[in-house]
Every structure is written in structure tokens, then in C-alpha cells.
Amino acid sequence: NLSIITTFLLIALIPGSIFILMLYLLITPIRKATELLQLNSQDGILRPVLFTTPIRIRELRQLRDTYNQLVYTARQQQARLEQLSNTDRLTNIPNRRAFDEALETTWRRLKRHQQSVALILVDIDYFKRFNDHYGHQAGDDALHRVAQALQSCAKRTDEMAARFGGEEFALILYIEDANSLDATRHRISECIRELNILHGYSSVSHLLTISFGIAWIRESGQWLDRMSKEEWLRAADAALYEAKASGRNCNMLQMITPDVPFTESPVWQQSPD
């Protein structure tokens, strides 16, 4: 009987359709999660698994939540490792690697927007004598205290103080005008003086002092295409060299503008009007 056969087929088709639908609803989130895991494996980037299904299956939700917790933990550990790799262990401030990255970022920003930024290289005066007479432990303690003092001069999130190498430090500070520049120069010198670290073997003071050179880019812009960040760094280094050659415990300024290009012999000891 055709009607009986049709009824039988319909009865058989309904559970079969329900089974196929259920299978699709189960397979789809698993397939999406598998594709995401494959993508994570290919590019090395951990992404959380985000899938939804109208069927509330406890095991699938537990699998998703457990994996996402692992991703969160791995990201935290990765961020911690990155922070450690960019931090100088002795002074607990950014190291040379972090400084190089910040210098590159700042340089790109300077060419896009008009800003006034100073690159400052700092050297502790007669530090070898300090180490030789007071010992390396006292020298390490002095380096740490100087580093923390210099870091206090970096107020903005896009400013930084970093250990450049040995007893040298580097700062990137945003300085808008000559008054701000004078205040910054005074603040840097004063923060070291306030440490009150005795240095009986210095030729310039009975306290530990610093010399520093400033390369100040006043009102940046596309004209910086004619320069490079390496030249900016050399300008600060040349200013530091002049400060040390002038007797130490002082600072020298190299102002860089479109009309005043970089020179190897910065001569200003006072800020320009």
C-alpha cells in the first residue's frame, strides 16, 4: 500500500533529519575551534576560542573555557617574559633593546606630527674611580639609584629613561619650549644631587655627579626625512662629549631645527630664547 509506505518513510525521515541537524549543530563549533587552533599553530598567535551553539553541551563549554584560560595564562607569561627581556636587571629600568624600540617609535611619530622632543645621553662622572675605591657593590647600588632618579624625570607614558650601557643612560623627553628645556636640565641635575652619594675621588665634586648631552628637535615635521634617528643619537652623543670635555658636571645642548642642522660641535650651554 502506497500510503503505508509513504507514512513509513516519513516516520523514518523525521528522526533521520533530527539526527543530521543535531550532528551539524555539534560539528560546527568543533570545526570552527579546529580551524582556529590550526591558524594559531600557523602564525604563532594565541587566540581564544569563541563559538556559540544553540545546544548547551556542558563538555563543549568546559573545553572552550579551559582552553581560553590557558590562552590567558600564556599571554600573561608572554607579556612577563617580554617585560623581563626589555628590563635591565641591575637598575630595573628599560634596557638598550627597549630604548632602541622606543627611539624607532618616537622617530616615526616625529616625522608624522609636529612635536618637540629631546634625546638626552647621561654619563656618570668618574664612575670607574668610584667603582675602584668603593667596590662593585657600592657601584651597583649607585647605578640603581641614579637610574631610578632619572626615571622619575620621565613623566609621560611615551617618555622613558633607559640604561644605555655601563654607566650611561638615555632619556626621551617631550620639551615644548626653552623654559621647559631649562626646567628639565635643572631637574635632571638636581635629582642626582639629591641622592647625596659621596664620591671622594671625583675631580669635580665631593658628591656623585653626571654630565649629559641634549639633542633637542624643536618642532619636528617632514623635514626630518633629511635626517635619521642615528644622526639624532649622534647629536646627543656629540653634546655629551662636549659636556665631558668642558670639565664634566655640566650639560651641553644641540638644538636641531630646519634652519639649524646637526653639527658635530654643539656650543650652547644656555637654552636659546
What does this structure look like?
The protein is of the alpha+beta class. 53% of the residues lie in helices and 13% in strands. The protein has 7 helices and 5 strands; from the N terminus they run αααβααββαβαβ. The chain has helices spanning 2-43, 58-85, 96-112, 127-134, 136-151, 178-193, 229-245, and strands at residues 117-124, 160-165, 168-174, 210-217, 251-256. It has a 5-stranded mixed beta sheet, sandwiched between helices. α4 crosses α5.
Distance between the termini: 108 Å
Strand content: 5-15%
User: Stretches where pLDDT falls below 50 for ≥5 residues?
Assistant: 269-273
Element string (H = helix, E = strand): HHHEHHEEHEHE
Biggest sheet, open or closed, and with what strands and sense?
5 strands, mixed
User: What is Rg?
Assistant: 31 Å
Mean pLDDT: 85
Structural class: alpha+beta
The total of beta strands comes to 5
How many helical stretches? 7
Shape verdict: elongated
* Portion of residues within helices: 40-55%
